[in-house]
Q: What sequence folds into this?
């Protein structure tokens, strides 16, 4: 009754809160947090995972929930959301999980999703953007943008911009984590062609748009330099859920250890989402938990400025954003 939950017990070198965390009794931690002054409470984060209902995104949700965080994920249908949420609750015993219905196909659908997120959260600690795109054919959305480019570049751009106020509310430890494949090294996007699919190719478009996403990450880092929001990027490894769907035959027939695959997949993203040390990772690109230097050509200020200006001009002309009140 009068024991201090933040004090180490005599029979163990752990505090009551640490024991509860280790045993997965997050409701006890929530209760004990209410008895402690704010500076001594264990901090659970409000984390949003875009497209977290399947594959790597779902595995990340599971790992974060198993550490007691509150996690919301976006998904395109109620059926997908219900199935994923049931699986995640059963696997983690953490019921602080919910989903937000929304599509990423157009600026209009993104604005609807942003509205739903604002209704669900009064503040956010972390937004994680991990959307896998492997186009087989060229498709152009209602905004006139090629769909791969839109999902790789414009969607995370709009989300990071529109969710910025929610992230800034939580002080100097809020984060945007963007997944950027190392395949960007093969990309050579053309600012006059790639956004509209004029140079579309079923293979090279993936490389071009991955580099576009790295450019976006660097520009977001510059944009949030003097704010509380930290922006970081991480190279995604292939999760065990993704492996069987992979089109690379060699990857499908090589012997593998599913548990090791999962650990490699989750190490970097989870560390960036929750570790206090990752607060210093602003503007850095990671492979796992190790920072990786980006080529000087990618960080060219003229290239970054040209893409930033193009983005501002395009969004300024978007009718749906104007109609919703920019």
A:
């Amino acid at each position: 009754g009068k024991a201090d939950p933040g004090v180490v017990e005599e029979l163990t070198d752990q505090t009551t809160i640490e024991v509860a965390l280790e045993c997965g009794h997050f409701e006890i931690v929530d209760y004990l947090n209410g008895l402690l002054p704010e500076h001594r409470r264990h901090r659970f984060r409000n984390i949003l995972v875009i497209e977290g209902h399947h594959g790597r995104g779902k595995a990340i949700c599971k790992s974060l929930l198993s550490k007691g965080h509150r996690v919301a994920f976006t998904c395109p249908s109620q059926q997908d959301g219900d199935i994923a949420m049931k699986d995640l609750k059963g696997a983690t015993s953490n019921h602080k999980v919910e989903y937000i219905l929304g599509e990423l196909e157009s600026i209009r659908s993104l604005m609807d999703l942003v509205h739903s997120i604002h209704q669900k959260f009064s503040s956010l600690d972390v937004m994680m953007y991990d959307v896998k795109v492997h186009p087989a054919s060229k498709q152009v959305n209602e905004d006139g943008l090629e769909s791969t480019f839109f999902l790789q570049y414009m969607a995370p751009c709009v989300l990071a911009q529109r969710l910025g106020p929610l992230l800034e509310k939580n002080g100097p430890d809020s984060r945007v984590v963007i997944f950027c494949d190392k395949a960007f090294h093969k990309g050579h996007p053309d600012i006059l062609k790639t956004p509209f699919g004029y140079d579309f190719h079923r293979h090279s478009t993936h490389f071009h748009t991955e580099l576009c996403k790295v450019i976006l990450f660097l520009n977001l880092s510059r944009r949030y330099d003097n704010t509380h929001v930290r922006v970081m990027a991480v190279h995604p490894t292939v999760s065990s859920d993704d492996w069987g769907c992979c089109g690379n035959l060699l990857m499908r027939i090589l012997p593998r250890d599913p548990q090791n695959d999962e650990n490699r997949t989750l190490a970097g993203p989870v560390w960036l989402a929750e570790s206090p040390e990752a607060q210093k990772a602003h503007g850095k690109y990671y492979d796992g938990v190790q920072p990786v230097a980006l080529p000087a050509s990618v960080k060219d200020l003229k290239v970054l400025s040209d893409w930033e200006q193009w983005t501002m001009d395009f969004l300024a002309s978007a009718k749906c954003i104007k109609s919703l009140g920019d």
